[in-house]
Description:
By secondary structure, this protein is α+β, with helices and mostly antiparallel strands. It contains 23 helices and 9 strands. Helix 4 packs antiparallel against helix 5. The radius of gyration is 23 Å and the shape is globular.
Amino acid sequence: MHQGMHTDTDRCLRAVQAKDARFDGWFFTAVLTTGIYCRPSCPVVPPKPRNMVFHPSAAACQQAGFRACKRCRPDTSPGSPEWNQRADLVARAMRLIADGVVDREGVPGLAARLGYSSRQIERQLLAELGAGPLALARAQRAQTARLLIETTALPMAQIAFAAGFSSIRTFNDTVREVYALTPSDLRARSPRGLAAGTPGALSLRLPFRAPLNPDNLFGHLAATAVPGVEEWRDGAYRRTLRLPYGHGIVALTPRPDHIACRLTLADLRDLPVAISRCRRMLDLDADPAAVDDQLRADPVLAPLVDKAPGRRVPRTVDEAEFAVRAVLGQQVSTAAARTHAARLVTAHGEAVDDPEGGLTHLFPSPRALAAVDPASLAMPRTRRTTFTTLVGRLADGSLHLGVASDWPRTRAQLLALPGFGPWTADVIAMRALGDPDAFLPTDLGIRRAAGQLGLPSTPAALTARAAAWRPWRAYAVQYLWATDSHPINFLPV
C-alpha cells in the first residue's frame, strides 16, 4: 500500500532517482532551490536530496508556493490510485471533487453529500492531502484551463468560464501562479495546428499507468453497447454522456501510451466532469503493478496475469444507468439485454444530435423510467417489480448510486430490493460503484473458468480461496472471465 507515501522520504528519493513513472500521481517532488514541483519520472537531472520535499497532491505543492514544471507537466500525470481503492471519507470526497461538485455546489454541497460538516471535511483533507477542498478544486480548474488553452483555439474569456473560474482576473492570476506563464504564453508554447476536425470537438490524451490491456476493457464496452447510446466505430468506443450542464459525446481510442479522447460538449463547463467520468469508466487511475503483483502470487492466476498483464475493470459513466442495465441483464444473454435496453432508449431516452451519425439518444434518466407503464415492459412479472422498484428508488433519491457511495452500505441497500441477489448487487458494486474487491462467485463465466483451472467451483469454496486475492478480487474476475472466448474479451476488429 502506498497510503501517505510522500512521508516515506527514502522511498520517494529512490523513485525520483530511478525516474519511475509507476509513482506518477502517487506523490509530487517540490524543489526548494527552483520553486517548481515535478512528477517522480521528470526527465531532468534529479536535484540534491536535501533540496527536495515531497507532497501528496499537486494542490498541496501549489499551496506551498511551488509552480508546475514545464518539462514533466506534473498536473497531467494519472490521478492517485488511492481514491479508487478506498471507501473512506477522504477518498469519497476526492471522487466528488473530481466530479466537479465543489465548483457547482461549493464546500457546503460537498459536505451535504457526504453527511459531514464542512469543517470535518476540511480538516481530514488537510491532514491527508495538505490542501482543503477549495485548493483541490482550484488545482483542477487550473488543469482544465491549461488543457483548453493548449488544445483549442477558444478565446480566453470562454476558457475561463468553461474551466469554472468566476472571473477573467482570477483565471489570469491562477494560471500565472500555477504555471509561471500567462494564458497567452501557454498557448504560444503549445504545438500549432490546433482545433481541426469536428467543430466544437476537443481532442485530448488521457494518461494511464502502464501496462494497460485494452482487450477486455474495450471488448466489454463494445460487446454490451446499447444501440443509439454506444457504438464501436473505426477503432473507437463512442457514447453519449448525460452531464451536469448539458450532454456530450465521447470517442475513446486505445493507443500504446495513452487513450485518445475526442469530446463534443453542449456546454464546455462539463469538460472536467466528462474527463473524470471517462477516466473512471476505463479505470485509468488503477495501479496495475500492485494489482498484478498480488494476483501473480497465486500459482493458478500467475500464467493468466503474465499472458496479458494490466487488465482493468470496465466501469461506467453513469451509475444509475448501469444498475438499470444490470437488472435488464438478469438471466438473459448479452444480446437480449442489449435489445431490452435499446427499446427503452428509443421509447424514453432524450434525442441528441451526433455530428458523426450513429448515436441518437441519452440513456433515459431514472425519473423518465419511473414514469413508464410497467405493463409495457416485455419481461417476467417478478423482473418488472425489480425494475420498477429500482427506478422508483433512484428517482426519489432514497437510493443514491454515485462516486461518493459508501460501498458496504450501498450494497446492503441493493440487496434489500426485491429481485436483487448477490450477483446483481456485486456486479453493480464492481462496475458502477468501483469497488476493486467486488467478487462474483455465482457468475456462470467465473464458475466455468474455476472448473477449467482446477479452482473450487462452489461459491463458498471459491470465495474462501479468493481471500488471498483481496483487495483486488474485481481484477481477478477480469482475468478469470478472459479465459473464455466470449466477445467481451476481445477488441472488436
